[in-house]
C-alpha cells in the first residue's frame, strides 16, 4: 500500500470517528460534518448578505474608510456592528468548513472518476476564497490591513510578474491614495462573485444538490455566530501608519496565517508550498486509483422512458433521448463519464420488479456487475435454503456495515452495491417467497457514498417516492436500519430485536407467490 | 423531537465551534518584529543610464526629415550597481538588471533590513551606468531610529538622487 493510501486511510479513520460521533447529538440530517458543502454555502450567503450592507455604508478614502467602518461598531453596534462581526466570523467559518470539506472528500477518496470534475473545479475556489478574505482585511485600513498589504505585496514581488515591486505602493503614508480603496472594494466584490460562479460550476454536474443545510442547522449556526458577534464584536485595530511597523496585533489565523508563515520561512518556500500543493491537488485524480466499476446499461426494449432513473440519479449521469424504435417515447441514456456505478437507477426502474414472469429478468436500466436478474436468482436461492422459525432476508450496503456475519440458517444476507439499487418490489417478493421479515441495512443518514442511496431507499420503502413499496406490505415485517462501517455489532443487535418483534407478529402474512411452478 | 441530551450535546458543540472561531480570529497576537527593532526599507526603481551619441550632420541628412533626432541612443539600459553600508559595515551589495525583453525597462530593488533602534550611520552608493567607474550617486547620514519606525531609502532624480524618508 502506498504512503498516500496509508495517510488517506489514517485520516479517514479519524474523520469517520468524529463524523459518526456527531450523529448522536445531531442526527444525520443536522450533522455538520456530513453536510460540509451545504454549510459552507450557507456561511458564504451570510458573508454575502452582511457584506452587501457593509458595502452600502462604506466610504472609500484613506481616512473615510477607517472612520466609516469604525462607526459601524461604535455608533451602530446593534446593526452595522453585528453585521460586521457576522461578516468576519462567517468568513472564518467558511474557511474552516471549506478546508474540512476538502480533507473529507480527499480522505474518502472522492476525487477521481465521476467526481474528477467536481474536484478539479473545487481547487481554484481555494485560491479565490483566500484572495477574497485577504483583500477584505485590507479595506478596513487599520494596522492589520497595513501588515497584510505589506506582507502580501512583498510575497507577490518574489514572483517575476511586476516590472516594479508592488510593495512600493505601501512604502510611506503618502504612497497610497483614495483610488486604491475604490479598486479594493471592486476587487472584494469581484472575487467573491467569481467564487460564486466557481461554486456553481463545482456542483452543476450533480443533481439534488444540498444548497443549504437543514433548517435547524441553519438556525443554530446563525444563532451561534450572532451570540459570538455580541460577545466578541469585530473591531478595528488602530489606523494604519506606513511610517511605523504595527506592534503586537490580533491576527485572523484562518485567513492571514500565511503572513507569519512567510516571516518564519521565506517567500520562495511559501510559493513552492502553494504551487506544489495546488499541483498535487490537481494531480490527485490522475494518480493510481481503483479500476472503475462497470457503468449502468440501458436496455431499449425494456426502457419505458418513465424518467425515474433520471430523477433519482445523484450525479446527473442520465438524460432522456427520443426512443429509436418507439415513436413518441423516450429512452434513458447513460453518460459513462458521470456514472458512479451505484445502481440507484436500477432500483428506480419500474421494470426491475421481480414479479415479472420472464425467465431472465431484463430491466430497463441495469448494473452489469449485479444485474437485477442475478439479484432475483440470489434471493430465490436464499429463500429456498433458509430454514428456521423466523426467516429473515437482509439486504445490506457493501459500503456500510458488514452484514456478512449475520448470515445463518434462518438469515439470508444479500449485499448490494448500494441499497438504493434495491427495487422496493423485492421486499414484497421476499415476503411472499417465504421470508418472515426483510431487514434493509442502509448507510447512516447523510453518510451514503453515493449521496442519496439511503434517502431514496427510505423514501421508496416508506411510500414517499416512486417506485414505492405497496401499501399491502405490512410495515411490521420490514425493518430499515442505518449503519456505518463500524456499526456491525449494533447491526446484529438491531437484527435480533427485529427477530424478537417478528415473533409477536402474526396474521399479516402476504399470500405466497411463486414465479416458477413448484 | 430532540432528546434533552442531544440538545445539551448540540449546545456544547456549537459553543465549541463559536469559541474556536472567536479565539483564532484574533488570537494569539502576532508581532512582526521585536519591540526594540526598526525597519529600513530599501526600494529603488530607476531606469539605468545609456550611452548616447550625437549624430553628425551627414548622418542626419541621410535620415528622413521626420526622423532626424540629434542623438542616437541604444534601447538597452545599463545595469545599476548599488551598495548599502550600516555603521561602516557592508550590508548589501547588488547589481540590478533592467527589466523587459530588450532590457529597456526599469531596474528595481526592494529589501528590508531590521536594525536595533538607536543611532546608525547609513551609507548608500549607486552607479546607474556601469561603463563609468565609481558611483555617481551617494548618500550618507547619521540617523536615529525609534522602535517600530520604518525608514525608506529611495531614489528620485528630481529630488537629487538617493534620499532617506
TrEMBL record, chain A:
What GO biological process terms are annotated to this protein in UniProt? respiratory electron transport chain
- Record carries keyword Iron-sulfur: yes
Sample GO molecular function, one term? metal ion binding
Keyword annotations for this protein?
Iron, Iron-sulfur, Membrane, Metal-binding, Oxidoreductase, Transmembrane, Transmembrane helix
SUPFAM superfamilies named among the record's database cross-references = 4Fe-4S ferredoxins (SSF54862), Transmembrane di-heme cytochromes (SSF81342)
Q: Which GO terms describe its cellular component?
A: membrane
Domain Cytochrome b/b6 N-terminal region profile spans what residues?
Answer: 1-215
Residues crossing the lipid bilayer are 39-58, 119-140, 180-203, 215-235, 268-287
InterPro entries assigned to the protein according to its UniProt record, in alphabetical order: 4Fe4S_Fe-S-bd, 4Fe4S_Fe_S_CS, Cyt_b/b6_N, Cytb/b6-like_sf, Di-haem_cyt_TM, MvhD/FlpD
* UniProt subunit comment: The main subunits of complex b-c1 are: cytochrome b, cytochrome c1 and the Rieske protein.
Task: Specify the protein name.
Answer: Cytochrome b/c1
Species of provenance: Candidatus Accumulibacter vicinus
Taxonomy of the source species: Bacteria, Pseudomonadati, Pseudomonadota, Betaproteobacteria, Candidatus Accumulibacter
Automatic annotation (TrEMBL), chain B:
Q: State what protein this is by name.
A: Uncharacterized protein
The protein's UniProt keywords, in alphabetical order, are: Membrane, Transmembrane, Transmembrane helix
Question: Could you name the domain of life of the organism this protein comes from?
Answer: Bacteria
Q: Which residues cross the membrane?
A: 6-24
